[in-house]
Amino acid sequence: MPMRSMLFVPADSDKKLAKSDDVKADVLILDLEDAVAPPRKAIARDMAFEYLKARPRGSRPSKVFVRINPLTMPEAEKDIAVVGAGAPDGIMIPKCAGAADVMRCSGLLDTIEARSGVPAGSIKIAPIAGESARGVLAMESYARERTHIPRLAALTWGVWDLTVDVGASSHKGPDGKFDFTYQLAMSLTLLAAKAAGVEAIDTVYSDYKDERGLLALCKDIRRQGWMGKLAIHPAQVPVIHEGFRPPAEDIVYAERVLAAFKSAADGVATLDGAMIDQPHLKQARYILELRDAQ
Ligand code: COA
Ligand code: MG
Q1: Which atom of ligand 1 is nearest to 28's Cα?
Q2: pLDDT, tens only, 174-222
Q3: Residue of the nearest CA to atom 31 in ligand 1?
Q4: Which of 204, 203, 212, 193 is nearest to 149 (CA)?
Q5: How far apart are CA 31 and CA 14, in angstroms?
Q6: For a designed S-S bond to 257, which of 49, 82, 109, 284 qualifies (C-beta 3.0 to 4.6 A apart)?
Q7: Is-contact 38 78, C-beta < 8 A?
Q8: What is the tens place of the pLDDT at every residue in 50-103?
């Protein structure tokens, strides 16, 4: 499934939950964590469950993930137990400290799925892998443990929480570019996602009124291999989709790759005198899937 846009929706806001039906994000992330004040955690959890129940799988215009509270907090297990029964398409783990956290969450989901009649293994997991120093240093664990975490669907990172965890007063220098620590976190997230064979999703673009800046950034990170971007405002969703649209020459090339494989007898083919094999085919199919996405 394309995951170009993943829009955070505070789960305790009736107004924003209602609005999310019209947004056409690839993924909505009902947030129980940072967008919800501590006294409203329980309300948000119940509202997320009600939202999911009212929109069974198959009737959802977008995939629906839920961002739970960090696994270090007592709320997390309650979050998984309550929202898991609503068959979300995925769980987002904030401040994830590595593959061991994904395994723990996965074990809890095994129980909930069995108890609630949700197909086994169908709730995916998308950790925010790079939003703490520990998380950034544990990035290799996703690649190492990939066969033990089949629920893993995507990796992303969070610049603001990482800034706080590092004790920095800002994450950009006078030139407006990320400091090296954040470039490293971003790059490791991309590499870990690729090594684990899952989607690489870039962090939020906080200045949500700057559509021009967001569009340019999306085009640039698409070129670098990112598959999507987190969003905080509905207006960012069409901009992100535009930014991740493959350029015309990539579409033409992908169509030619598919045609070359149609007439090839086995797993390799020739195009313009060069050998092409399965990774080319996989990439071509993905580009055509993006072309066809609304
Ligand atoms: N999801 C769904 N609907 C949203 C939304 C979101 N993330 N953000 C805004 N909306 C809705 C508003 O309710 C408003 O609806 P209306 O047309 O029915 O009045 C409309 O979109 C326009 O919103 P706008 O007035 O421009 O923004 P705002 O001032 O209401 O909200 C934010 C601005 C940043 C507070 C809001 O976008 C938001 O809550 N974002 C998510 C924050 C979050 O989850 N953070 C945690 C992850 S980093
Ligand atoms: Mg946060």
Answers
A1: 1
A2: 999 999 999 999 999 999 999 999 999 999 999 999 999 999 999 999 9
A3: 233
A4: 193
A5: 13
A6: 284
A7: no
A8: 999 999 999 999 999 999 999 999 999 999 999 999 999 999 999 999 999 999
Adjacent-strand bridge partners of 125: 91, 152
223 lines ligand 1 (CB under 6 A): no
The tens digit of pLDDT for each residue in 255-282 reads 999 999 988 778 899 999 999 999 899 9
Domains contained in the chain, CATH given: 5-245 (3.20.20.60), 249-292 (no CATH)
In degrees rounded to 5, what are phi and psi of residue 60?
-85, 125
Cβ atoms of 106 and 149 closer than 8 Å:
yes
- The DSSP code for 157 is E
Q: 57: Cβ below 6 Å to ligand 1?
A: no
Picking from 65, 208, 167, 195, the residue whose alpha carbon sits closest to that of residue 125 is 65
Nearest CA to ligand 1 atom 36: 233
Ligand 1 centroid–CA 94 distance in Å is 20
Here the tokens at position 290 are 């993006």
CA–centroid distance, 149 to ligand 2, in Å, is: 23
Confidence of residue 245 (pLDDT cuts 50, 70, 90): very high
24 CB less than 6 Å from ligand 1? no
DSSP H or E stretch at residue 49: helix 41-54
**233 close to ligand 1 (CB < 6 Angstrom):** yes
Neighbours of ion ligand 2 (CB under 5 A): 34, 161
Closest C-alpha to ligand 1, atom 27: 233
